[in-house]
Amino acid sequence: MLNDVKNILIVGVGGQGTLLASKLMGKCFLDKGFDVKVSEVHGMSQRGGSVVTYVRYGTEVFSPVIDKGESDMIIAFEELEAARWLPYLKKNGTIIVNRQEINPMPVIMGTATYPEDIIGKLRATVEKVISVDALSIAVECGNVKAANTVLLGVAARVLGFGQDIWLKAIETTVPAKTVELNKKAFLSGYNHEQ
After folding, report:
1. The domain spanning residue 50 has which CATH number?
2. Residue 54 lies inside a defined structural domain of this protein
3. Is the pLDDT assigned to residue 162 strictly greater than 90?
4. Structural domain of residue 6, as residue ranges?
5. Distance CA 188, CA 190 (A)
6. How far is Cα 149 from Cα 155, in angstroms, rounded to an integer?
7. Residue 21 neighbours by CB under 8 Å, 6+ apart
8. Cβ neighbour number for residue 115 with a 10 Å cutoff
């Protein structure tokens, strides 16, 4: 089937754990028997720059690249990154947005201002917007760094795969000392009211 390939963009800022999230997602899709292509594009990630990962899965995936207007889902770890990558979302796609604002360099330097009400603007143009305070949930789970796994849990529920395959991927992918934290964060995201 030619049209069974699904496209997911994971976008954020360097240091937010987008690459680990894409690795977990890719492992889960492989374990489900899909052909998977993952492509990581690093911006100035060490300096808080934009980081994007393309995740494509289906019966047969030929390229890891997602073009504008082709993404079924965008998982945005930061609000401005959600707005920046919005042109890649399909008309009926879903965008999951972490309610976090990280000032880019122009805002830090005072040459620009952070846009107001990004989530409101997203809701005005996209039918399926899921807004999540992943940082607060991660703190409740024990570590702010688990926000990426919270967002992954939200995405997993939308994608419709059961929890078990994701929890298994966490067990075999994250460092052993963080397995329980990441499982808790994932389940908190999975069970988050959407």
Report:
1. 3.40.920.10
2. yes
3. no
4. 2-135+159-166
5. 6
6. 10
7. 10, 53, 75, 148, 149, 151, 152
8. 12
Q: Looking at the chain, which runs of residues are DSSP E strands?
A: 6-13, 35-42, 50-58, 71-76, 89-98, 128-132
Residue 88 covered by a domain: yes
- Please enumerate in sequence order all residues whose Cβ is within 8 A of that of 111, keeping only pairs 6 or more positions apart, or say none: none
Residue 110 structure tokens: 């005072």
Q: Is residue 185 part of a domain?
A: no
DSSP code string of 119-166: HHHHHHH-SEEEEE-HHHHHHHHT-GGGHHHHHHHHHHHHHT--HHHH
pLDDT top residue among 51 and 137: 137
First to last CA, the chain: 31
pLDDT band at 15 (very low <50, low <70, confident <90, very high): confident
Considering the domain boundaries, does residue 81 fall inside one?
A: yes
pLDDT tens-digit profile of 126-155? 999 999 999 999 999 999 999 999 999 999
pLDDT at 45 over 70: no
Residue 35 zone, left/alpha/beta (φ > 0; ψ -120 to 50; rest): beta
What is the per-residue pLDDT for 59?
93
pLDDT-derived band at 43 (thresholds 50, 70, 90) equals low
Domain count, the chain: 1
